[in-house]
Write a structure and sequence with these properties.
The complex is a heterodimer of chains A (296) and B (378).
Chain A lengths: L1 H41 L2 E2 L7 E2 L3 H7 L2 H33 L5 H13 L2 H12 L5 H8 L14 H26 L3 H10 L3 H12 L1 H16 L3 H6 L11 H11 L3 H26 L6
Antiparallel strand pairs in A: 1-2
Helix pairs in contact in A: 1-13, 2-13, 3-7, 3-10, 4-7, 7-10, 10-13, 12-13
Chain B lengths: L3 E8 L9 E8 L4 E5 L6 H9 L6 E6 L2 E2 L10 E4 L11 H5 L1 H5 L4 H15 L14 H13 L5 E5 L7 H18 L2 E6 L2 H7 L2 E6 L2 E6 L1 H6 L4 H6 L6 E10 L2 E6 L5 E3 L10 E8 L4 E3 L13 E10 L3 E8 L2 E8 L9 E6 L5 E3 L7 H11 L1
Parallel strand pairs in B: 3-8, 3-9, 6-7, 7-8
Antiparallel strand pairs in B: 1-2, 1-4, 4-5, 9-10, 11-12, 11-14, 12-13, 14-20, 15-19, 16-17, 16-19, 17-18
Helix pairs in contact in B: 4-5
Classes of the chains: A mainly alpha (296), B alpha+beta (378).
């Protein structure tokens, strides 16, 4: 009898469990799983949102391989990534190291550096657009004070992408500062005591202890910011529209244009698929070089 | 070999009313194995870290080999330290860990190689030189930490509870190894532990610390046999010394100790010093100095037999620790476990009068107890 009650109770508990997770499952199926499967289906089809999808085999792939604009967009994204990630890691580590020390108003500064992360991307982008404005922007005003002629921050083909990378670094840095701060605080303090006794300088501490022991955090930061960098969209969309001369056209912006401006849903899905493969390859390479386990 | 001298050393933290280390004087001889022992929070690790230079000294002076090191950075004090949790660099292999200090100081590579190999040979870790710490056992890790300490050939080794993270068997083994190492290297060692067994077995001399004050400093046997106060008497020794509150009374020109709330009176053997009747005294006797009445040593003055009930008999194989009760008193007695005994049995015990310790109302040992021991030593 008791066993029957227990069995019924167990089944009831299971049902309650399923009930609790069902909203998440429904949303996951509707907004992640279904679009994923559907986009895979679209790779082999031509679809303009109005008529039925038409099977085209590997046409989308073949077109992609010969699409110079796509390769330009990929190159632009890689340029962004190569500027943004080192900048982000460099400044995040430096600031995290300062914030790990017992400095004045440490909590305030920790919150202050995190603030840009929670501000809407569109708001930040519009704000920086104003700062970067060639005629009225504060950056050019400051440059003019030291006698440097105005820079076309968002209009120069050479400077526009680095300018966007700097802005994105400012926007996202807070999140990575927190990650590095966590990594720094998890390094046992007695290791630094040993190095003090053994006679290491602060600089030697950094190179011989801090940096090697931040390797797991570094991998996390590099992988996460690689994902972030490859999904570059809102910044060029709002600030430059992909210009000048497509020099800030990111892969995601290019995909968006094909999907929602030209209604090339099949081709946009193919771009997305290609981007996923590129990201996977880059992350695997990163993991190979950074993914060494460390146990304290 | 170098001596270590501490003069009026004080450590005071601004957010704390009381000083952690209070006006401490200590002289450690060159080549001596000195152990700081005390309960958690007594200040022993703080003191060690002050000697290491990891914590600043509020006031006072410290000398190593006659050189004032009070304000020197750790690297210039000619010390090396072994930490409780080994403090090995997880990303470096054993060789790199041991040679860390030497490579920081840009020592010649051949010299590094020689010293690391010598240390590894000495500590029996030659086969692990290319392994990382996570692939080593606790004992092996601690050997590596010791290797890192000795390879730089400092004047003083500091050990901060180095065996606390090891299991009991490994702790005993490492204890012997560190003692042997000291005999070989003959370097001054300051060793911190809360384990009195480590302190008793390893130390040339030991310092018992409590509340940042040296309670007693001396050879382990001296501290065990002549504790200066109640704290030392109960902290050193396992099981601890039995203590009974009571009064000293005079009867027929003989002094007796009357234990509170009982009819038990024990004759005292040092009437010349404890001449007055007085109250609020504490009598102490170690468990091994309470004998079975039928086995009392012939040459020893003992109390009359006390009828006791065994509340608990803890056998340790060779010995048995008896938790006894008599006239409302509870105390422990250690005996050889060569006779059958169990909880609830009744036995007759006698106290060795010559082994009694008397502490005054402040918990300080009466000179009688200490002088007696001094006489014995001389």
């Amino acid at each position: 009898m008791c066993r029957i009650y227990m069995t019924i109770g167990k089944e009831k508990n299971e049902n309650i469990g399923y009930a609790f997770i069902s909203p998440y499952i429904i949303f996951l199926l509707a907004f992640t799983a279904y679009p994923l499967v559907f986009s895979f289906y679209l790779i082999f089809h031509r679809w303009d949102l109005l008529t039925s999808p038409a099977f085209v085999g590997l046409d989308n792939f073949i077109f992609l391989l010969h699409d110079t604009q796509f390769w330009q967009a990929l190159l632009n994204t890689l340029v962004f990534l190569l500027i943004h990630i080192p900048l982000q890691i460099f400044f995040s580590i430096i600031i995290a190291m300062v914030l790990a020390e017992k400095i004045f108003a440490r909590t305030f500064f920790r919150a202050a550096f995190f603030l840009p992360v929670i501000i809407s991307g569109a708001v930040v982008t519009i704000l920086w657009q104003k700062l970067y404005a060639t005629d009225t922007g504060i950056f050019n005003h400051l440059l003019s004070l030291i006698g440097i002629s105005p820079v076309g921050w968002l209009t120069s083909t050479k400077i526009a992408m680095p300018a966007i990378a700097i802005m994105a670094t400012w926007k996202n840095m807070g999140f990575y500062i927190i990650l590095f701060l966590g990594g720094l605080l998890s390094i046992p303090g007695h290791l630094y005591e040993v190095s003090r006794i053994e006679g290491a300088s602060r600089w030697q501490d950094f190179w011989r202890i801090t940096l090697p022991l931040l390797r797991p955090t570094m991998l996390l930061v590099v992988v996460l910011s690689t994902f972030g960098a490859f999904s570059l969209f809102i910044e060029p969309y709002v600030m430059t529209g992909g210009g000048p001369l497509d020099k800030t056209m990111s892969v995601v912006l290019y995909m968006y244009k094909h999907a929602f401006l030209f209604q090339h849903m099949g081709y946009a899905a193919t771009i997305g698929f290609a981007l996923a493969i590129v990201i996977l390859m880059v992350v695997l390479v990163q993991k190979k070089y950074l993914g060494k386990e460390t146990e304290y | 070999m170098a001596s270590v001298i501490l003069e009026n050393v004080v450590k005071h933290y601004p957010n704390n009313d009381k000083s952690t280390i209070k006006d401490l004087d200590l002289s450690i001889n060159a080549g001596e194995f000195m152990v700081f022992v005390g309960p958690s929070g007594c200040g022993k690790s703080t003191l060690l870290r002050m000697i290491a230079g990891l914590i600043n000294t509020t006031s006072g002076k410290m000398f190593i080999d006659g050189k004032d090191i009070t304000n020197l950075p750790p690297k210039d004090r000619s010390i090396s330290m072994v930490f409780q949790n080994y403090a090995l660099f997880p990303h470096l292999d054993v060789y790199e860990n041991i040679s860390f200090g030497l490579s920081i100081r840009k020592t010649d590579k051949k010299e590094i190689d020689k010293r690391v190999n010598d240390a590894a040979e000495l500590l029996g870790i030659k086969d692990f030189l290319r392994k990382t710490p996570k692939n080593l056992s606790g004992g092996q890790r601690q050997r590596v930490a010791v290797g890192r300490a000795i390879v730089r050939r400092p004047k003083v080794f500091l050990f901060d509870e180095p065996l606390s993270n090891l299991d009991a068997k490994m702790r005993t083994q490492m204890r012997v190894e560190i003692s042997k190492l000291h005999k070989k290297l003959k370097t001054t060692i300051i060793y911190v532990t809360h384990d009195q067994c480590e302190a008793m077995t390893m130390a040339d001399r030991m310092v018992v610390l409590h509340n940042g004050i040296i309670q007693q400093c001396g050879a382990p046997s001296e501290i065990y046999s002549s504790p200066k106060n109640v704290f030392v008497a109960t902290f050193i020794g396992s099981p601890p010394m039995n203590l009974f509150k009571g009064d000293i009374i005079k009867k027929d020109d003989q002094l007796f100790f009357k234990i509170n709330n009982t009819a038990l009176t024990l004759p005292l053997k040092f009437p010349d010093i404890l001449s007055d009747e007085s109250s609020d005294y504490t009598l102490g006797i170690r468990p091994e100095h309470i004998y079975l009445a039928e086995r009392k040593p012939n040459d020893m003055l003992c109390s009359e037999a006390i009828d006791c009930e065994i509340e608990l008999a803890e056998s340790m194989g060779n010995d048995v620790s008896l938790h006894c009760k008599a006239q409302g008193l509870e105390f422990q007695s250690n005996q050889r476990h060569d006779f059958p005994i169990k909880t609830g049995d009744r036995i007759k015990l006698v106290f060795a009068i010559d082994k009694l310790h008397i502490f005054d109302e402040n918990g300080v040992a009466r000179p009688a107890t200490r002088e007696r021991s001094d006489r014995r030593k001389s």
